[in-house]
Amino acid sequence: MERYTIYIRGTEVVIATEPPAPHYALIEADASLHISRAKLIKKVETDKFIAIVTPSPSETFTLLCGEFRLVRAAGGVVVNERGEVLMIELRGRWDLPKGHIDEGEESRAAALREVLEETGIVTEAVGDAPLMTTYHAYDTYGAWELKPTDWWQMRYTSGEPAPQHEEGITAAAWCGGVVLKERLKTSYATINAVVGALEV
After folding, report:
1. How far apart are CA 111 and CA 75, in angstroms?
2. What is the pLDDT of residues 158-195, one digit of tens each?
3. pTM higher than 0.90, yes or no?
């Protein structure tokens, strides 16, 4: 089923031809396949799971994206020889290393750079395309932005985890088994989706 997922203030917004589950609050796209950002944000205030139902998810998604300022980002899902995932602790929650793509920079290069800067770990990307892309919308001083983040699967090359304290990162560590499961419980929905998509 063709579908797109955007996270807004902790709410999961799915754009699809039908809702993924009965508990999703429904919004139907209008005759032009459009849904206004204002209407969606108002719905986010009361519901944690929203389904925008439309006969053309791709067109509705494109139209909705046009109502936000796009801020492109890239991150890395680094796996070592023990099958552990490299995570960072930022603002009290466990996350994956990521950051903005600089002007003229390619997505994969940005992801490799951000992992090195935020964790001190040297990596190499696996594959020629991102593992997945997540979408997160947020309000920055009254301006709504949509951040598509390309997540690249990577393999460890060298280095020891060292958090980039000047960016507010308090820890960088390899996480596997029970530890990984526990840290994902208090992480973000996007991070759980990315780790779940790993090809190990």
Report:
1. 4
2. 999 999 999 999 999 999 999 999 999 999 999 999 99
3. yes
* Cα(148)–Cα(45) distance, integer angstroms: 22
Pick the CATH number of 73-196 from 3.30.460.10, 3.90.79.10, 3.30.930.10, 3.40.50.300: 3.90.79.10
How many CB atoms sit inside 10 A of residue 78's CB?
Answer: 29
- What SS3 string covers 170-189? EEEEEECHHHHHHHHHCCCH
pLDDT in tens, 99-128: 999 999 999 999 999 999 999 999 999 999
Question: What sign does the dihedral 166-169-171-174 (CA atoms) show?
Answer: negative
Q: What is the rounded distance in angstroms from the CA atom of residue 28 to the CA atom of residue 31?
A: 9
